[in-house]
Design a protein that fits this description.
By secondary structure, this protein is of the alpha/beta class. The chain is about 50% helix and about 15% strand. Helix 1 packs across helix 7. The termini are far apart. It binds NADP nicotinamide-adenine-dinucleotide phosphate. NADP nicotinamide-adenine-dinucleotide phosphate (NAP) binds next to helix 1, helix 4 and helix 6. NADP nicotinamide-adenine-dinucleotide phosphate binds next to helix 1, helix 4 and helix 6.
């Protein structure tokens, strides 16, 4: 496994992204971190610098395709990216919101991912190495009534990552899709429903780092949730529908 020296993380100002940044931060590592909140990004950058990493931050909206590409290409000239984690995402918190908000979910969770990984793929293809991690979710494995846009945006990036994994193999670019269950972050703090097998960010980061180091295609956890989602997919559709109706 070649040593990772340079990592880009979107959505690094909070939750899983921030925890991943801290976990990867060590001497000899270059971290390019983005998010929308400059205050929180600066705090995370301070922590990472204290761990010995070289850090650059930029407040940028992942929906801004052109600016994101320009920034990614510029940072790649400092230390070429070995790993790009397309993590930024939003959810409706299980509540029915507006059509506009559902469209925003797609803009961030799907097109924001494309805006992050396409520039990275172009750079990595030319040097025939690199790794891309795409943040999907267990919610992408079955469509629940409480989150149609969120579930389908996560299903889309899962299929995109799976396809890209084989497509980019000849270029020696590794692609992994991360499918976590519930993790305690500001994103889930507003959920008013029961979240089975809720995991800490520390535990989640350990699993994600291990999975990426092993170049796993799908990093799905916790296993109990993964099993439940698998059962929903293999049951006759009318049975799964009935079960899904109870998952409020
Ligand atoms: N927590 C879970 O249970 C869970 C489970 C499965 C998958 N996920 C996925 O994991 C990822 C991280 O979630 P989290 O739980 O860590 O949530 P979080 O704490 O709310 O963090 C989300 C991050 O995404 C950034 N972000 C949101 N919209 C953005 C935009 N338009 N442009 C740029 N950055 C944007 C946020 O930036 P600001 O805060 O600066 O606005 C923040 O850094 C998401 O893709 C989420 O869907 C989470």
């Amino acid at each position: 496994m070649p040593e990772i020296k340079s990592i880009l993380i979107t959505g690094a100002s909070s939750g899983i992204g921030a925890a991943l940044a801290s976990a990867y931060a060590k001497p000899g590592i270059f971290l390019a971190l983005t998010g929308r909140s400059s205050t929180r990004l600066k705090q995370i950058a301070q922590e990472c610098k204290a761990n010995g990493a070289k850090v650059v931050t930029k407040t940028i909206d992942v929906r801004e395709q052109k600016s994101l590409r320009v920034w990614i290409e510029k940072q790649d000239t400092i230390v070429p990216f070995d790993l790009v984690i397309a993590n930024a995402g939003i959810s409706n918190g299980g509540k029915e919101k507006s059509e506009e908000f559902d469209r925003e979910i797609f803009a961030v969770n799907l097109f924001g991912v494309l805006n992050t990984v396409y520039p990275a793929i172009d750079l990595m293809k030319s040097r025939k190495k690199g790794q891309i991690a795409i943040m999907s979710s267990m919610a992408g494995l079955y469509g629940f009534p409480r989150s149609p846009a969120y579930s389908s945006s996560k299903a889309a990036v899962k299929a995109f990552g799976e396809s890209m994994r084989n497509r980019l193999r000849p270029f020696r670019i590794k692609v992994s899709v991360i499918c976590p269950g519930f993790i305690k972050t500001p994103l889930t703090d507003t959920n008013e429903y029961k979240m089975p097998f809720l995991t800490t960010t520390a535990k989640a980061v350990q699993i994600i780092q291990r999975g990426l180091a092993k170049n796993k295609g799908i990093i799905a956890f916790p296993w109990q949730m993964n099993l439940f989602m698998w059962i929903l997919r293999v049951l006759p559709a009318s049975w799964s529908e009935r079960i899904a109706r109870f998952v409020k």
